[in-house]
Amino acid sequence: MLCSSLENVYCYAVTPPSADLSCFYASRYRSAKLHVLEESLVSYLFSRPWSDCANVVTLTDTDPNPTRIKQIDNPEKGENVIYDLNGRKVEHPQRGLNIIKGSKYLKK
């Protein structure tokens, strides 16, 4: 799925989350503004893929405050959908850890 309208990314993590370099594939994140904690600015500037953002700024008091996630609707709940640990849907269980119906399974 393309995310061609991405303008702002807000990250409240002190340590930049590790992410596969393709996590923003086909999106406009490189031109999006990345908002991070002031004490973490340098860390984000030197951590990929976050360092690929053209405009990294510190969060301000007017930026949205994070709240807890109340509910996630999953239309595929109950189906035998299989995901790898990167959250990608796969056809068959892969070697290593897989997520099937929300539970982790190890395939050797």
Q: Would you mind describing this structure in some detail?
A:
It contains 1 helix and 7 strands; from the N terminus they run ββαβββββ. It has 108 residues and is mainly β. It has 2 domains: 8-58, no CATH class; 76-108, no CATH class. The mean pLDDT is 79.
Main attributes of the structure:
108 residues, mainly beta, 4-stranded antiparallel sheet, 1 helix, 7 strands
Kindly estimate the percentage of residues that lie in beta strands according to DSSP.
25-35%
Radius of gyration: 17 Å
Helical residues, percent: under 10%
Strands side by side in the biggest sheet: 5-4-6-7
How many domain units? 2
Broad shape: elongated
Distance between the amino and carboxyl termini: 31 Å
pLDDT averaged over residues? 79
Unreliable sequence segments:
none
Describe the sheet with the most strands.
4 strands, antiparallel
SS-based class: mainly beta
Q: Helical segment tally?
A: 1
